[in-house]
Amino acid sequence: MAAHLRVPTRLALVVRAEVVAVGTEILLGQISNSNAQWIGERLAAIGVDVLHHQAVGDNVERIVDGLSLAASRADVVIVTGGLGPTQDDVTREALAKLAGVELERRPELERAIRDTFARAGREMPKSNLVQADVPVGARSIPAERGTAPGIVLELDGTRVYTLPGVPAEMREMMERTVLPELESLAGPATIVSRTIRCVGIAESRVAEILDDLFHGSTNPTVAYLAGGGEVRVRLTAKAASVEEAGALLAPLARVVAERIGEFVTSTSDEELDEVVGRLLRAAGKTIACAESLTGGALSARLAHAPSASDYLLGSAVCYSIEAKRQILGVSQETIEGPGVVSRESAAEMAAGARRLFGADVTLSTTGAAGPEPHDGAEPGTVWVAIQAEGVAHQRRIRAPGDRDMVVRWSEQAALDLARRHLEGLPLPDADRVVH
Amino acid sequence: MAAHLRVPTRLALVVRAEVVAVGTEILLGQISNSNAQWIGERLAAIGVDVLHHQAVGDNVERIVDGLSLAASRADVVIVTGGLGPTQDDVTREALAKLAGVELERRPELERAIRDTFARAGREMPKSNLVQADVPVGARSIPAERGTAPGIVLELDGTRVYTLPGVPAEMREMMERTVLPELESLAGPATIVSRTIRCVGIAESRVAEILDDLFHGSTNPTVAYLAGGGEVRVRLTAKAASVEEAGALLAPLARVVAERIGEFVTSTSDEELDEVVGRLLRAAGKTIACAESLTGGALSARLAHAPSASDYLLGSAVCYSIEAKRQILGVSQETIEGPGVVSRESAAEMAAGARRLFGADVTLSTTGAAGPEPHDGAEPGTVWVAIQAEGVAHQRRIRAPGDRDMVVRWSEQAALDLARRHLEGLPLPDADRVVH
């Protein structure tokens, strides 16, 4: 099949898309269908209307039925899953049946699979070669990650893209091939969202502050999403171009950011760790941590950005009392007095990390992640501290939820101290609760 | 409609279910369809076969079409979403159209809504009363959380349950009403899965080893899932009771575990960090880490279990070369010679963590997470090491994918060294690749 695009005439104005996930494990709820969400979001961003999602099991007949239905009502169908090398991967077979053709083994795909194994110094199990099978007449998309190529079929004016179910492989193929192709089909229409993130303020308070905008604005629309120790305000505009959508979003984003003020951590959907990394880089400063209940998770957040080594020196994760004393220099007085979950302990940990790493800014966390109380502190009680030239500040939060949530809220509270310090904003009161 | 259950005869043996989510925000990927996953999991647990998921937007015609299709092929349809008080909540209207009846306002539901607002001391917006509208002849499920009642329709032998889209409200209604009703329909049947996790072996190799079981066994079934530096083999049995399903699963699980041998990290779906925690606890031993590229993520994995403080002492996250030298005692010779991504560096880091924390077992990680090479090492090249009484072992892995994947594979490789050490298994060769 030719590599150039055949543009069915009915694609000219509006492209209607459908997303079909293949996998019994999705139906049984054993894994979440995160691919559908990601694909929906990306298609919306280029102005493609997604009208249906389907999920079907690893069953040839049901895949064929689902795809026939999708092809009958959509211009573009994006299928994920069932392209692996094992026996329950039957999407290739279903595609051939749908198109009424046989599967053929493509030598160039076979070579690519053999090469991938050879490069990794691994022996190739023979079963992997089924991934070189493609319905006769279909186009393939070479695999850049993994070993499963994508498959593109044309059926009576509907284009069916089939991609691997592994999220990283699917996303890479979407970005390299599918989205650019669809963008040229969809023409000038786009849906653009802008997300403003806020930390240290309740969702209901945000909703009160923005009530008139929520009700008064239809394009852009205003939506709220709370979770993970932050509130996200999402503004969504539909327009003929990205520029036009941006022009609709900018004044509203400005009003939202002004009203929420110092609680806004990002007006461009950055994670709080990215914001802190950006501020550190701009100031030419370094950071280090001293962690108890977060167990390394705070430092791992700061290490997430590609060039984190420009500012992150390290973290002393001191889970045991002995390590807190010996490595961070938490005093016997504190350990026997207010205990390791205390303002004093958080302050001494931040000071200890500063001595140990010689960083410009240090953050510390100590608290009870739960489910049991820790050293007299109730689950969810956490002290975070910051230390920097001329600054030594601590605050307590009471985080809701289970162990994971308490850790996440602690990370957010500690990172927000760093953000406020680096932005020259007031540091919140010690006893103020986050939510 | 009578409150007692009408049991369509074709429900007697197998109950086929379909889950339909209503909401444009799901199609656009603005929220994840976590309801479908949760419902799928709960239905599987009571032996109900889920054969399809659908998601449709807030559009009466498309909801009616989707529900007609679902009703034509399923015994039970579970619909979520579109029962709110706003103008884009059109599921009630679609249900009435589907059943060919009008909507009627139910006084008892209206009273319940007014009461809910009165109890909360809030004024009731008039728009909320549309939530008291139900198709003529349908049964309603009172709202215990929130204000949206559920709706139950019978259509030619298919029962359609419609529940609010808010996860907490949906789950409460499922547990209070829908699941108990379906359990009595499905009769004594349950689907039980058992997951065997493997690390250090390729998915295709696992599939080869288990090929005859995959083809030879229909109950339990065998499925594979690879990702995150491990392969999961899922055995799923359907039987009249949990005990019976367990009896079907046990011998097959034993065969699978025997064949995959030392690569099996868990036969009960435990995360590798849980396995290591359990082994440490059983041996009465402590652990500490020295981390570079994992940035605290290895230690955070070990801190995840509720009583991790029984064995985890801490971690020295040393991102900078200076911290590696000063805190962990990595030698100048190593830094200037093979560099910080080397066997020598990993060994010195593990030894340094042992001195620093006095732990029985220490793990270290150093490598290039990408996207750029690090100290001469290509992205994905990682050394992990273990040190314990009489043990000092290092190995190199080449991890695929982006920064997050390289970190995750590094965690897995390091944790697997600890598992093998604690289980008395041979430690893998230095140069063997993980996948």
Give a description of the structure.
Two copies of one chain form a homodimer. Chain A has 435 residues and is α/β, with parallel strands linked by helices. Chain A has three domains: 9-186, MoaB/Mog-like domain (Molybdenum Cofactor Biosythetic Enzyme, Chain A, 3-Layer(aba) Sandwich), CATH 3.40.980; 190-266, Alpha-Beta Plaits (2-Layer Sandwich), CATH 3.30.70; 272-423, Alpha-Beta Complex (Maf protein). The first copy, chain A, contains 15 helices and 17 strands. Chain A has helices spanning 24-27, 34-45, 60-73, 91-99, 107-119, 167-186, 203-209, 211-216, 242-260, 272-283, 297-302, 321-328, 332-336, 343-357, 403-423; strands spanning 16-22, 49-56, 76-80, 103-105, 133-135, 139-141, 150-155, 158-163, 190-198, 221-227, 230-239, 264-266, 287-291, 312-318, 361-367, 381-388, 391-398. The first copy, chain A, has a six-stranded mixed β-sheet, with helices on both faces. In chain A, β16 (381-388) and β17 (391-398) form a beta hairpin. In chain A, α3 crosses α4 (91-99) and α10 runs parallel beside α15. The first copy, chain A, is globular, with a radius of gyration of 26 Å. Chain A starts with 15 loop residues before the first strand and ends in a 12-residue tail after the last helix. Residues 1-12 of chain A have low confidence and may be disordered. Chains A and B meet through α1, α2, β2, α3 and β13 of A and α1, α2, β2, α3 and α7 of B.
